[in-house]
Amino acid sequence: MLKYAAKSDVGCRRSNNEDSFSAVPELNLWVLADGVGGHDAGEVASDIACRVIRESVAQGVGLEDAIHKAHDAILAAPANGQGRPGMASTVVALQVEKDGFHVSWVGDSRCYLWSRERGLEQISRDHSLVQRLLEEQHITEEEAGSHPGRNVVLQALGQESIPRLEVESIRDRFEEGQILLLCSDGLNDYVAHADIVAAFERSNDVQEIADQLISKTLANDGADNVTVVLVAMPGAASNGVEPLPDAAQKGWLRNPLAWLIAAALVASAALFLL
Fold this sequence. Notes:
Blueprint (H helix, E strand, L loop, with lengths): L2 E7 L9 E6 L4 E7 L6 H17 L4 H14 L12 E9 L2 E7 L3 E6 L3 E4 L6 H7 L5 H4 L23 E6 L5 E5 L1 H4 L4 H10 L3 H14 L6 E7 L13 H5 L5 H18 L1
Antiparallel strand pairs: 1-10, 2-3, 3-4, 4-5, 5-8, 6-7, 6-9, 9-10
Helix pairs in contact: 1-2, 6-7
C-alpha cells in the first residue's frame, strides 16, 4: 500500500499561501499547484487547478487532458466571478498505475525520484527561462541560481500569452523502496540539493522527511510559499531483507525443538574437531 505525506507553509515573508495541493489516495492521485508570483489571485488559480484535475481524473479523464481542462477553467474563471484576469498557476501531478507512475507538469513545480541506489534525481524539466538558457548554454548551473530571471516561467495554467499549453509527461516503473517528491519552487530555491538528499538519507518515513524539508526551508529564511508532497512505495529494508520483529527474532530461544537441534549441531561439531 502506498504511503504519503503532504505539508505546506506560507514561508518567512509572505502573508498568504498561493500553493495548493490535493491528495486523493483512492485514485492514487496527488496534485501540487503554485500560483504564479506577481499575478493577482494566484491562490485561486492553484486551487482551481487542483480541484479540476481531481474531478476530471475521478471521471476517467487522463492526466494530460485533466491539466488542459484545468487551464481552460482558470481562463474562464474571472468571467464567472472567480479570481482575476491574468491569474495563473504551475502544476505537477502524479498518478500511480499498478507498479508504474505517470507524472505530468506545466511550469517549474518539480518531481524528484529518490532511491537508495541512485540517490535523488529530478525527473521533471522546468518550463522556465533559466532552464531554457541552461539548455542553450547561455548560462552555467552556478549562474542559474542567482540569475535575475530565475522565477520567470514560460508555461503556466491560465497564462494568456501562450499560443498553446504544453503539458510534459513521464512514465516509469515505481519500485519498492522508492519515494516520489512533488514540490513547489519554494523548496528548491531555498534548500540545496545536498540538503534535500540529507533529509532522505536520515529517514524512510515520508512524514518525517516532509517535516525536515519544510523546517530546512524556514531555517534558510525561505521567502516563498513552500509545499512538498511525498509518495512512497513500501519495500524491503536497505539490505534487501525485511527485518524480523524482535519477538520473531528471539522466539526460537523459547522453542524446545530449536534447542535440541542447536545442541545436536554443537555435539556434531565437537566430534568433528576431535
